[in-house]
Amino acid sequence: MGLHRFSQLLRTLDIQPMGHVDRAMTTPKRGRPKSEAKRRQILEAARTVLFDVGYSAMTMETVAELAGVSKPTIYSHFDSKEKLFGAVLQTGADERLRELSAISTNAEEAPEEALRRFGNQFLNLALSKEARAWDRIMIAEIGRHPAVANLFFQAGPSKVLALLGSYLREQDDAGRLRVPDPAIAAEQFIGLLLGIKLLRHRVGLDDDTNRGEWPRHVDEAVRTFLAAYRPKTADSA
Fold first, then answer.
1. What pLDDT was estimated at residue 33?
2. What is the pTM of this model?
3. Fewest CB atoms within 10 A around its CB: which of 8, 82, 125, 233?
């Protein structure tokens, strides 16, 4: 059988030659676009459920009911409970980081002022009611779900440390501070800000009625930090 007749036979039987690509099979089908508003609705419902019952007791069914959507709709946005939890964490962390990112917006601002502003903003966030709610969730879940603790740290604390470390590195490059290891220095400054205050807050011994004392606490943390990292002058050498 000649090649021409063989091709005609294939067309008659509706069989495509090897190597032929059917456009109908390869062209991706357009599904219904995911609604960003619905995604935010799901995240807000998940956050409410998390703060109410914790990660272990949270179910996709409960979130769907509160969000007013179907369970398949949730899975179209988040394919697992862990992914949903991570998205709730990341959304909240991104909002808080935007408030802290102002530390690096003014390169000419004195380190004292920049660190003081950062310290006050950080303390207000770290000791907020929402932060305390996350603390309770983490303490309850760490033993049962170690991955949850890692998600929490990567979404929030590690990014705060990276932001502060980047600022300290810039100040070292500019000669305003002497910071041999910005990563360690960032941890030290956060430690000065929180210290025993975080523990007192967690056990209910230090509540929002003491908020007026926080600026003085931040001032002392900045003073102590700069005593270690301010460039030494000829008089102080």
1. 53
2. 0.72
3. 233
